[in-house]
Write a structure and sequence with these properties.
Layout (H helix, E strand, L loop, with lengths): L12 E2 L3 E4 L6 H8 L2 H4 L13 H17 L4 E7 L5 E9 L8 E7 L8 H16 L13 E5 L4 H10 L2 E7 L6 E7 L1 H10 L4
Antiparallel strand pairs: 1-2, 2-3, 3-4, 4-5, 6-8, 7-8
The structure holds coenzyme A.
The site of coenzyme A has 21 residues, from strand 5, helix 4 and helix 5.
């Protein structure tokens, strides 16, 4: 695998069933298979929704993700690889919200349809937030404090809202979206809120 990312977050992150790791160009066919599907991309960002059409586009997407930490080290997008099979189920990420300066940060996820229904997105996002809050504690210039993290989705994206609920993010309801067109179902967490929820979380 060609490592593309230069995240300062210690990687990979291992969970019970997943390896969260940077994407490499070897993943391009799987990325194309995920992002070439309207059923996946129609939930990501604002329209128009244009399915990915080539391996070149997939490699560019991988390179763009790899460059994310250059603008803000707290931002990272990781392949969620199922450890038992080596199959990339999808992506979990912390990214800047569009048109925000300094950037508001959001947590997000998407899976290949063949990998839904197993809890992988929840498991991956939880581990990513745990790792990011632990590492980005403001103790050094390359470890800026991670505090508020947003999560927004189309109001009818019930599977995504269910993930935010399982993670214990604070549910703000359906509001005018500050970063995207129209209304969104918005969730939020903070360092204190996440730490508190972590304490309450069952071990498994
Ligand atoms: C949103 C999306 C990631 C949700 O996928 P998902 O598989 O439902 O989410 P998870 O991976 O957390 O899995 C949860 C499901 O697995 C089930 N599950 C099975 N085994 C499980 C386990 N060991 N642990 C947890 N959940 C498990 C849960 O019960 C739940 O199923 P349910 O909704 O039928 O109750 C997926 O639909 C997707 O990629 N959609 C397109 C892109 C998108 O909308 N992204 C979000 C934009 S805001």
């Amino acid at each position: 695998m060609t490592e593309q990312q230069t995240a300062t977050l210690p990687l990979p992150i291992e969970t019970e069933r997943l390896l969260l790791r940077p994407y490499g160009h070897d993943d391009a066919p799987r990325v194309l298979d995920i992002h070439g599907r309207l059923e996946v991309i129609r939930w990501l960002g604002d329209p128009p929704f244009t399915p990915m059409a080539s391996l070149d586009e997939a490699r560019t997407w991988i390179d763009d993700l790899g460059a994310l930490p250059e603008s803000d080290p707290r931002c990272v997008a990781l392949a969620a690889e199922v450890r038992d099979t080596g199959v990339v189920a999808g992506t979990v990420m912390i990214t800047p919200c569009p048109n925000s300066d300094p950037p508001d940060l959001q947590v997000g996820w998407h899976l290949h349809p063949d990998s839904t229904g197993h809890g992988y997105a929840t498991e991956g996002a939880r581990a990513l937030l745990d790792a990011a809050y632990a590492y980005f504690d403001g103790s050094a210039p390359d470890r800026p404090l991670l505090d508020e993290v947003w999560c927004g989705m189309y109001p009818d994206n019930h599977p995504s809202a269910a993930i935010a609920g399982r993670l214990g993010l604070e549910d703000l309801g359906i509001l005018k979206d500050p970063w995207y067109e129209g209304d969104s179902h918005l969730f939020r967490t903070t360092r204190d809120h996440w730490t508190e929820r972590r304490r309450e979380r069952p071990v498994r």
